[in-house]
């Protein structure tokens, strides 16, 4: 049974994870000086950079998005010069999505900017907090995996 104390802690955890994600994404975009994208399109670009040649259907399944929303996002991202749709060499009827050099460059800039921001922020914390946060990474990954099935 959920206690009031546990419930309060869960609300606080959800709030701090949301706030950290928002702040890190915004500050990272600013520091990297890249054009901001809507969240769903940024998710698509991250996936395509991580898995070049992924199909639109795989993108929809992985990101738990409607295929029509993926198609619209891919259209906008192609217009922005961030992805390219190509025919699958094994099945010309199927499409594959590749990142453009601009998308790869932006992803690298964002990754470096976020890492730099985290390093700067962690350096301002007491050693015990830094160590606790770094030790929590495996637990946070496990939480992400557990939540992914519920999205």
Automatic annotation (TrEMBL):
Segments passing through the bilayer: none
UniProt-listed Gene3D superfamilies: Winged helix-like DNA-binding domain superfamily/Winged helix DNA-binding domain
Alphabetical list of InterPro entries matching this protein: HTH-type_Bedaq_tolerance, HTH_MarR-typ, WH-like_DNA-bd_sf, WH_DNA-bd_sf
SMART domains assigned: HTH_MARR
Pfam families linked: MarR_2
Segments forming domain HTH marR-type: 6-142
MF GO annotations: DNA-binding transcription factor activity
Protein name: MarR family transcriptional regulator
